[in-house]
Amino acid sequence: MSKALSGDLLRAKWDKYALRYDRDIGFFERVQFGGGREWVCSQAHGEVLDVAVGTGLNLAFYPDEVRLTGIDFSPAMLAIARTRAAELGREIDLREGDAQALPFPDASFDTVVCTLGLCGFPDERAAIIEMHRVLRPDGTLLLLDHVGSHHRLIRAGQWLLEKLTVRMLGDYQTRRPLPLVEEAGFVIQRQERLKAGMVERVAAVKPATAGS
Question: Which domain of life is it from (predicted)?
């Protein structure tokens, strides 16, 4: 497995990449993730936390009535998100922070959203546990990401690509977060695998019996 980047180096790389991100992700949005943001954001309700909010590409797809908070570790990405929110007339509390140690009290949100973020966290298990912690009982977790395919040849190609993407931006191609979501205490309500198993969409709930 490729060596993970340190937190400071990873932040610096994303800050440098921020101005190119929307342009570069546009192709993959159309070819690989088409409709994914809409699928996720349309299900959000109440107090919503967008983890790894990035440049704010999700903002156009949330229902008008939700109350939004977004967090990202890249100041440059957040600056673009602030501009996008202003252009959309969308109110959102944007904060700099670490998804692996969310700066919010337990049971703060009704919905947690993470689109194309789990592939980039150094410790995705810690991030999922934090998402569980800040959700209220019966709260909803909504995920979209590229994941390791079940097809062996495709997964082999992802493994080779990962050797490059991890070094470039800390971006993993072969992760499979669904078992970690269940391990954290979530109950899966809906899960879809798309594009030869390379894209996963997940809707899960934190049971009330799990406490805060």
Answer: Bacteria
Task: For domain 7-206, say whether CATH 3.40.50.150 is its number.
Answer: yes
- pLDDT digit string, tens, across residues 96-134: 999 999 999 999 999 999 999 999 899 999 999 999 999
Report the predicted TM-score, pTM, of the whole model to 2 decimal places. 0.89
Distance CA 147, CA 165 (A): 14
The domain ranges of the chain are: 7-206
